[in-house]
Amino acid sequence: MAEISITSENWERLKLKVKRKYRDLTEEDLAFTAGEEEQLIQRLMGRLKRTREYVVFTLEKGLVNIDNNRL
């Protein structure tokens, strides 16, 4: 079960932040539908070769200041 909840509106902004930080991610890597946070986390773990905790922390950090451009 995913520890975070991302709305479709927030994802559009968060996706830009993640894409800016990890330029090698594709649109397929960043595909997301509301309610499918777990699939997104798993996909990012594999592509970034990072732990679950790191991926969740990164996404949460981006959501905290959603209007800010920094991740």
What do these coordinates show?
By secondary structure, this protein is an all-alpha fold. The chain has one domain (8-64). It contains three helices and no strands. Helix 1 (8-21) crosses helix 3 and helix 2 crosses helix 3.
Determine the N-to-C terminus distance. 23 Å
H/I helix tally? 3
Number of β-strand runs:
0
Beta content = under 5%
Could you say how many structural domains there are in total? Answer: 1
Radius of gyration: 11 Å
Biggest sheet architecture: none
Structural class: mainly alpha
**Large-scale geometry:** globular
What is the residue-mean pLDDT, rounded to a whole number?
A: 93
Low-confidence stretches: none
Residue share in helices? 40-55%
H/E series: HHH
Brief overview:
The protein has 71 residues and is mostly helical. The chain has helices at residues 8-21, 37-48, 52-64. InterPro entries: YjbJ_sf.
List the helices and strands and how they pair.
Layout: H1 8-21, H2 37-48, H3 52-64
Helix pairs in contact: 1-3, 2-3
Structural features:
71 residues; mainly alpha; 3 helices
